[in-house]
Amino acid sequence: MKKLGVKKIFIAILICMGSINASAGAYTDTECKVHLNRIWAGDRGYIWLHYDEGGSAVVSPHNPDQKNILALSLTAIASGRPIVVRFHEVNLHNCETSGARTDIRGIYLLNQ
Predict the structure, then answer these.
(1) pTM for this structure?
(2) What CATH architecture applies to the domain 30-109?
(3) Which residues form the signal peptide (predicted)?
(4) Hey, which of 26, 56, 74, 111 has its CA 20 to 30 A from 9?
Protein backbone atom coordinates (compact mmCIF):
# COMPACT_ATOMS: atom_id res chain seq x y z
CA MET A 1 0.00 0.00 0.00
CA LYS A 2 1.36 3.37 -1.01
CA LYS A 3 1.83 5.93 1.78
CA LEU A 4 0.47 9.43 1.34
CA GLY A 5 2.66 12.29 2.42
CA VAL A 6 1.55 14.67 5.14
CA LYS A 7 1.49 17.51 2.62
CA LYS A 8 -0.91 15.63 0.31
CA ILE A 9 -3.23 14.77 3.20
CA PHE A 10 -3.22 18.40 4.34
CA ILE A 11 -4.07 19.61 0.83
CA ALA A 12 -6.91 17.07 0.57
CA ILE A 13 -8.35 18.29 3.89
CA LEU A 14 -8.19 21.92 2.74
CA ILE A 15 -9.99 21.07 -0.49
CA CYS A 16 -12.75 19.26 1.42
CA MET A 17 -13.14 22.16 3.85
CA GLY A 18 -13.33 24.63 0.98
CA SER A 19 -16.11 22.70 -0.70
CA ILE A 20 -18.04 22.49 2.57
CA ASN A 21 -17.76 26.26 3.08
CA ALA A 22 -18.78 26.94 -0.51
CA SER A 23 -21.91 24.84 -0.19
CA ALA A 24 -22.80 26.41 3.17
CA GLY A 25 -22.97 29.81 1.46
CA ALA A 26 -25.77 28.56 -0.77
CA TYR A 27 -28.04 28.17 2.27
CA THR A 28 -27.71 31.62 3.81
CA ASP A 29 -30.82 33.47 4.85
CA THR A 30 -32.15 36.37 6.92
CA GLU A 31 -33.58 36.15 10.43
CA CYS A 32 -35.94 38.70 11.99
CA LYS A 33 -36.88 38.88 15.68
CA VAL A 34 -40.53 39.92 15.98
CA HIS A 35 -43.56 39.77 18.26
CA LEU A 36 -46.77 38.37 16.78
CA ASN A 37 -49.98 40.32 17.29
CA ARG A 38 -52.38 38.19 15.22
CA ILE A 39 -52.61 35.14 13.00
CA TRP A 40 -54.92 34.71 10.03
CA ALA A 41 -55.80 31.23 8.77
CA GLY A 42 -57.83 31.12 5.59
CA ASP A 43 -57.69 32.00 1.91
CA ARG A 44 -57.28 28.43 0.66
CA GLY A 45 -55.02 27.20 3.44
CA TYR A 46 -52.63 30.13 3.82
CA ILE A 47 -51.44 31.24 7.27
CA TRP A 48 -50.59 34.92 7.80
CA LEU A 49 -48.38 35.90 10.75
CA HIS A 50 -48.63 39.63 11.54
CA TYR A 51 -45.98 41.40 13.64
CA ASP A 52 -46.29 44.15 16.24
CA GLU A 53 -43.33 45.79 14.52
CA GLY A 54 -45.13 45.85 11.14
CA GLY A 55 -44.88 43.45 8.23
CA SER A 56 -46.01 39.85 8.02
CA ALA A 57 -45.08 36.38 6.85
CA VAL A 58 -47.29 34.21 4.68
CA VAL A 59 -47.04 30.43 5.02
CA SER A 60 -48.24 28.51 1.99
CA PRO A 61 -50.43 25.42 2.40
CA HIS A 62 -47.75 23.64 0.36
CA ASN A 63 -45.04 24.42 2.93
CA PRO A 64 -44.23 21.09 4.65
CA ASP A 65 -43.57 22.99 7.91
CA GLN A 66 -46.88 24.89 7.93
CA LYS A 67 -48.45 23.04 10.88
CA ASN A 68 -45.27 23.30 12.95
CA ILE A 69 -44.97 27.03 12.21
CA LEU A 70 -48.63 27.51 13.17
CA ALA A 71 -48.17 25.58 16.44
CA LEU A 72 -45.14 27.65 17.46
CA SER A 73 -46.90 30.86 16.43
CA LEU A 74 -49.93 30.06 18.59
CA THR A 75 -47.61 29.30 21.49
CA ALA A 76 -45.84 32.64 20.96
CA ILE A 77 -49.12 34.57 21.05
CA ALA A 78 -50.46 32.68 24.08
CA SER A 79 -47.23 33.15 26.04
CA GLY A 80 -46.30 36.63 24.80
CA ARG A 81 -42.91 35.36 23.69
CA PRO A 82 -41.08 36.65 20.59
CA ILE A 83 -40.13 34.56 17.60
CA VAL A 84 -37.34 34.69 15.05
CA VAL A 85 -38.61 34.27 11.50
CA ARG A 86 -36.13 32.86 9.00
CA PHE A 87 -36.50 33.88 5.34
CA HIS A 88 -34.79 32.55 2.24
CA GLU A 89 -33.69 36.02 1.09
CA VAL A 90 -30.17 37.01 2.07
CA ASN A 91 -29.59 40.37 3.79
CA LEU A 92 -33.19 41.48 3.99
CA HIS A 93 -32.75 45.15 4.86
CA ASN A 94 -35.86 45.79 6.93
CA CYS A 95 -37.97 42.97 8.31
CA GLU A 96 -40.78 45.22 9.51
CA THR A 97 -41.45 47.14 6.30
CA SER A 98 -40.82 44.37 3.82
CA GLY A 99 -44.54 43.71 3.34
CA ALA A 100 -46.00 40.21 3.30
CA ARG A 101 -43.05 37.85 2.88
CA THR A 102 -43.77 34.48 1.28
CA ASP A 103 -40.24 33.05 1.42
CA ILE A 104 -40.46 31.88 5.04
CA ARG A 105 -38.23 28.91 5.94
CA GLY A 106 -39.25 28.49 9.56
CA ILE A 107 -39.40 30.13 12.99
CA TYR A 108 -37.73 29.92 16.37
CA LEU A 109 -39.76 30.36 19.55
CA LEU A 110 -37.64 32.43 21.93
CA ASN A 111 -37.60 32.35 25.70
CA GLN A 112 -37.70 36.14 26.05
Answers:
(1) 0.69
(2) Beta Barrel (2.40)
(3) 1-24
(4) 26
Q: What is the average per-residue pLDDT within 13-27?
A: 54
**Rounded to whole angstroms, how far apart are CA atoms 112 and 109?**
9
Domain definitions of the chain by residue range: 30-109
Dihedral sign of CA atoms 3, 5, 9, 12 in order: negative
Q: How far apart are CA 34 and CA 55, in angstroms?
A: 10
Q: What are the pLDDT digits (tens) for 23-81?
A: 444 557 788 899 999 999 998 999 999 999 888 989 999 999 999 999 999 999 999 99
Q: What is the pLDDT of residue 22?
A: 45
Rounded-to-integer distance, Cα 44 and Cα 56, Å: 18
> Residue 21's Cα: distance from chain center in Å?
19
Are 86 and 34 contacting, i.e. CB atoms less than 8 angstroms apart?
Answer: no
Q: Give me the count of residues in the chain.
A: 112
Mean pLDDT of 84-110: 78
